[in-house]
Amino acid sequence: MLKRARSLVCLCVATALGVPQVTYAEADLPEIGTAAGATLTIDQEIIYGDAYMRMLRASSPIVNDPVMNEYVDSIGHRLVSSANDVKTPFTFFMIRDRNINAFAFFGGHVALHTGLFLHAHTESELASVMAHEIAHVTQRHLARRMEDEARRSPATVAALVGSLLLAIASPQAGMAALTATTAGSMQASINYTRSNEKEADRFGIATLARAKFDVNDMPRFFGRLADDYRYASKPPPMLLTHPLPEDRITDTRARAQNYPPLRVLPSIDYHLARARVVARYANIKQSAALDWFERTAKKADPAIKDSFEYGKALVYLDNNQLDKSEAILTKLLKSRPNDNFYLDAASDLYIAQGKPEKSVQLMQKALKTKPNNPVITLNYANALLESDQLEQTVQVLQRYTHDHPDDTNGWHLLSEAHIKLSNSDGDLAARGEIMALNAQWDKAIQLYSQASQIAELGSLKQARYDARIDQLLVQRDRFMALQ
Fold it and tell me: CATH classification of 267-353 is 1.25.40.10, yes or no?
């Protein structure tokens, strides 16, 4: 029974497609299944999604890169604002993995492998993958598949959810479990998955159209992916869980032709993000990365040439060739002084040069233009920390962690600041929050208990720690009840 449930991972992970406008193709979108309300409520989906996100943080190489997170989030929410049937908040994040893959799960969580940036040639191609994943969430494919499974087996909803979530990001395990099921159940799972994939393609392409991306990039990306791996002995995870039969590619191509032509200019932000992935997350040597930037720049649109220079600047920075990095970044900042990609790299450069005060000044200036921007705020806090302006560092990070409690970057920096200030209780509390975000509840409670013991007896600080312990106990019990 659990093996059968694990096979349901096939409907969660997703490939991608896209389309700009919407009016014509929306009329013939099919209704598949039910709203899944009988199996799982939206509130329950959000609880399960939060629980699984904590498990992923503890077990997967999540990319905690503020610049990349901001970019992916901007594209994701541009799409969500154009999607139909949005019932949950959405969270977009990246996993460091060169395999091409993306997947969605309960509560509006959408994960992208960094490998997508190595294979998607344009922003619209990336957006097509994301739009497809968003459609899996808005159409509640996971909950609907569970409802169908529950009708055919005596498994409890809790057992089904647990099995699905444990297998959701592991397509190999999902496919292995699929082959272990009976023929009838296996065929039913395959058929249901194919239906969901086509529905996600159709809703995704409509979302792409409304968000003003190039809808033709969905079938273009799918077609290239199918061609590249047609004879591969080991296809990427995305094709294991989201096969691309010819009729699916043909269907998306036909739907894309229903929309009026839309000229989408190359996105410098996408290519800056792509360069950052090549420089920092592709697991290749310095020489290989520099060679890729040189070769790709020669045939690239002039509008995106700066992205390759940016990539080289990051490679030089990460390999301590600071003069070369500075020469490039100085030029880039002059051309776009408010660009977060460039500002983040310049901040790191000044700190590496032993000039954190220069980074502080740069971030203070940027904050005047972009107050409360997460990328600038974190860089500002880091620069303050490096320049030993510790009290101000704590003030900035206390505000930041209040506004962004799920960002481990803020808690890590706050922990470091408290250590430098010899505030042991503050360090313990910050580390407690990191443990909680990783579903390590007992460790989180232990750290907060230690912080409470250190704090002055009867103080407001001790009362705050004790209140947080009570909250963590409730969260832990709720989490354990899901298993």
Answer: yes
Residue 402 labelled as part of a binding site:
no
Cα distance between residue 378 and residue 363, in whole Å: 9
Report how far residue 49's alpha carbon sits from residue 406's, in angstroms, rounded to the nearest whole number: 14
**Local structure of 86: helix, strand or coil:** coil
Q: What's the pTM?
A: 0.84
| Residue intervals in the chain for CATH 1.25.40.10 | 267-353
404 Cβ neighbours under 8 A, 6+ residues apart: 374, 410
Task: Note whether 152 and 182 are within 8 A (CB).
Answer: no
State the residue for tokens 């090549």. Answer: 278
Q: Is the pLDDT of residue 235 over 90?
A: no
Q: Write down the pLDDT at residue 36.
A: 44
Q: Is 141 annotated as a binding residue?
A: no
* Rounded Cα distance, 7 and 342, in Å: 44
Lowest mean pLDDT among 50-59, 302-311, 357-366, 392-401: 50-59
The Cα 57–Cα 53 span in angstroms is 6
- Residue 31 assigned to a binding site: no
Q: Sorting pLDDT into bands at 50, 70 and 90, what band is 38?
A: low
Distance of CA 244 to the CA centre of its chain: 23
Neighbour-count burial for 233-264, b at 16+ CB within 10 Å, e otherwise: eebbbbbbbbbbeeebbebbbebbebbeebeb
Do 127 and 74 meet the contact criterion of CB atoms below 8 Å apart? no
Report the C-alpha gap between 293 and 286 in whole angstroms: 11
CA distances from 279 to 74, 176, 291, 308 (A): 21, 34, 11, 10
Sign of the CA dihedral running 411, 414, 416, 418: negative
Contacts of 338 (CB under 8 A, 6+ apart): 366, 369, 370
Tokens of 315: 């490679």
Sheet harboring 91-95: ordered strands across? 91-95, 109-113, 102-105
Q: Which residues contact 365 (CB under 8 A, 6 or more apart)?
A: none
Give me the sign of the Cα torsion angle 96, 97, 100, 104: negative
Q: Name the residues annotated as catalytic.
A: 133, 201
Encoded tokens for 436: 């909680």
